[in-house]
Amino acid sequence: MLKGIGNLVLKELKELMRDPKILLGMVLMPLLMFPLMGTIIGASMEATKEKLAEMHVLVWDKDCGSYAKNFTEYLRSYGIRVHEVDVSKLSEAVALMPDYNATLLIEIPNGFSENVSRVIEGNTTVSAKVEVYGVFSGSGMFEEVCVSMVDALVESYNRQKAPNPVGVEKNTIVKGEILEGIDPGTVSGLMMAQSITMPLTIMMLLTFAMQIAATSVAMEKEEKTLETLLTLPIGRFTILAGKLAGSTIVAAVGALAYLVGFQYYMSSFTGMIPAEGVDLAALGLVPSMLGYVLIGISLFVSLLSALALAIILSAFAENVRSAQSLIGFVYPLIFLPSFLLMYMDISMLPLSLQILILAIPYSHPILASKAVIMGNLSTAVLSIIYVSAFTVVILYAAAKLFATEKILTVKLRMKKLKIKWKRKASTES
Amino acid sequence: MDYAVRVEELRKVFGDVQALDGLSFSVDKGEIFGLIGPNGAGKTTALRIVSTLLLPTSGKVEVFGLDVVEQPEEVRKVLTYLPEEAGAYPNLSGREYLEFMAKFKARDKHELKEFVEEAAVISGLGERLKDKVKTYSKGMKRRLLVARALMTKPRLAVLDEPTSGLDVLHSYHVREIIKRYVKKHEVTVLLSSHNMLEVEYLCDRVALLNKGRIIAEGAPEELKEKFESANLEEVFAKVVKIA
User: Are B164 and B192 in contact (CB under 8 A)?
Assistant: First the structure.
């Protein structure tokens, strides 16, 4: 029934694998990209661990009893940098946190030592609690890890003293405001929907748009409609602008559809996160109108540069298939920052990675949106300026390409390069 | 004399390949002029330079006195170009494609309608113009594109292999369109073909191209007489041998 299938498969393999663009885009890129991503994410996790080891905690000991001292020493014994502060009000302690670079404040209330002694003696009517205040900075994973670490330490402290003399009351500090009884993990959980949706949407929008633009140019080249367009009495930049605008609109519709679908998907389980009456808007964790405008501008300029880049790359392709493969080379620049910034803040990464992420223009819509959410509008503006400069350069290159015959004649001459390389090698030997 | 097209000592080099090697010819106004020769002779390169798509390495090309290097925008106003084996946008209907192209040349809605109606007559596609281009046969697509190139009554129509790959009937239709329409509206045509019999039928004058150079030029009858040949194919074979 399948007589000749072997011959057909062999032909397919030869045809596909001998196309250097397919070989590079489909085989070599994943082989390089995933180990690279693994290495980078591994390095980031390592950085998180290091940051935790360097975690600074303020302890406001109102009790000053023996168990309070014992508890503080216990924290120190785990390598946590504990700074004891002597203040009269909680707000004063919170105000001191930036001075010590502290992410957590532990308040040991009056009567703590007495209550611990009573519990240890078997009195079950009393309990000793510490109040933990975690600073919410929008850095994702790190906040949860910090608070979880205190939980784990209290748990292990309890195991030594038994039976559970110390409890933890969690509170959150958002932009200097204290939110009593709200776990930073809860705020993080709620923000997670936002911090995942944004990078994913941006990632999808950029990849869709690049695919559309590249396909569009490659199809015009393949069908020779581009040649016809270029002989019409219209400016070459108008043709380029038409391509950019058309691709942007289609990509925006695609991204919108994706966003709506994703919101439904997220809402199906975010309802399960105990919100405890937390209103993100009331906490100032929802962008303002100006913030939305800045996110929009950042996204628009990034999109424009991605489209122009796709158009430049597709000019090197002879058909749609090779255009798609060439675009594949840009995807790591989109995926890498998206995945990294989904879970962690850029400040938590090693310096070399921070520079890499900042240099990639497609990181910036995500960085800008995170900055806007945390009310840091100047960072968003700087980010927009950087991407705009990059966009101008890329647009200029695309316009130059369209203005000359290069748009029709430029090709990726892999064969020629190979021959040149061989010649060079043989002359050297 | 005022020429429609004047090409002088035109050279074009792509890397190591010399596509045109000192090409010179001129096309009179209202004339159908054919560049003929085998594949790789440099016909398409010459037409692309005349149409402002490529830049010459050296030499001079003028279209109605306009320099293609110095005044490409002006040149594009007076010509239309039909690439070899070109397609159209597959998801547009034939009429939408014609309207899209006509909008770049029409001065008002009335003229736009006029152009599209003209194209409908030229192509002879009738009701099929409402269908998407992707449903068209190769011949129908070519008729649509030829109609697009002629509908605006350009001063110069540059047609690269207008009947390439078409069957006998479609080739006949396209040739008839060009011959009839061009004479009626005094459009100058510069075309290329490797089908020498077709060129003999269509063109007022021809230039035989080989390896980027013109090896003979004149009216088909003159050339046949000069080289004592029955048709242009024979002329070409003899000229190549002499060259």
Answer: no
